[in-house]
Amino acid sequence: MAVTDIKSASEKLLAAEDSRTSISRITEEWSGLDLETAYKVQREVISARTAQGRKIIGTKLGLTSKAKQVRMGINSPLTAKLLDNYYLATDTPIPLAALIQPRIEPEIVFIMKQDLRGPNVTAAQALAAVESVHAGFEVIDSRFTDYSFALPDVVSDNASSAYFFMGNKGVSPADLDLTFEAVALSVNGKCVATATGAAVQGHPAEALALAANSLAAQGDYIRAGEIVLTGGLTDAIPVEAGVQISAEFTNLGSLFITAE
Ligand code: 0L1
Ligand code: MG
C-alpha cells in the first residue's frame, strides 16, 4: 500500500498493529509528512479505534526524559491518546502474543480532578488540577521495525502505545515532592536503572503543562477524570516471556509485572 496521505498512513499503521507486523518509516515513503500532519494521522488512527468501540481514557506524553530522547535520537516530547484497551490490571501478565517488539518503562501517572486547557498553562496550574499521583508502567510497541522512526512517524503511531499499568495507591500531589520521587527499575530482581521525577522535564507537572499547551494547538484539552502518563523516567527495556519486572517508588508504592 503506497502511503501518500493521512488516510493511507493511518491504514498502514492500523494494519501493522492488527497483524503484529512491523513496517518501515512512513517518512521514507512520504517525505512531506510534517509534525502537524502527523498529529492528524494520529487522530485518524484513534478515530478508527473509537469507531470500533474503544474509548479515550487519557493522554500520554512521550520522550519527556533525556534517557528516552537519547535512546530514540529525538529531542522533542510528544503527546498521544490512551484508549481503554491499553489498561491492564497489575496481576495481568503482559500478553506477548498481541505485540510485535514490546518494551517497558516506569512512569509517574496523574489522575485529573479538573479540566486542563492550554495555552499558557504553568506547572503550578497543572499540578493544582491533579487529583492523585500513581506509580505506573507503560508497555510500548512501536509499529516501526526496530523502533527506527523520526518524530512524525512516532507521532503518527500514537507514540508506540500498547499497554499500561497503574498502582492502586493514589497520593495527593500536595503530599509529595515529585522532583525527588525516586524509582528503581529491576529485571528478575536485579536493579537495571534508577531515576527521579526530575528526569521528566525537570518535574512531571512541567510535562503535564506541556501536554495541555501542545493539545491546545490541536484544539484539544485534558479532561477531569482522565489518566495522564507523563513519560518514561528511564530508558525502556525489552520484555520477554517469563521475565519479572518491578518498579519500586519511594512514596508511590511498587509494581511487579510478568509477561507470557
Ligand atoms: O517508542 C518510543 O519510545 C516512543 C514513545 C515514548 C514513550 C515515552 O517516552 O514514555
Ligand atoms: Mg511512555
Tell me what the structure shows:
It is built from seven helices and eleven strands. 26% of the residues lie in helices and 27% in strands. The protein has helices at residues 6-19, 26-29, 35-51, 66-72, 123-128, 151-156, 204-216, and strands at 56-62, 78-83, 103-112, 130-140, 161-166, 182-187, 190-196, 227-229, 237-238, 244-249, 254-258. The strands form two sheets. Strands 1, 2, 3, 4, 5, 8 and 9 form a seven-stranded mixed β-sheet that branches. The protein has a four-stranded antiparallel β-sheet with strand order 7-6-10-11, with no helix packed on it. 45% of the residues are buried. The protein binds hexanedioic acid (0L1) and magnesium ion. Hexanedioic acid binds at residues 62-63, 68, 72, 105, 138, 140, 142, 147, 154, 159-160, 231-232, 236.
Ligands and ions found: hexanedioic acid, magnesium ion
Strand content: 25-35%
State mean pLDDT (0 to 100 scale): 97
Q: What structural class do helix, strand and pairing data support?
A: alpha+beta
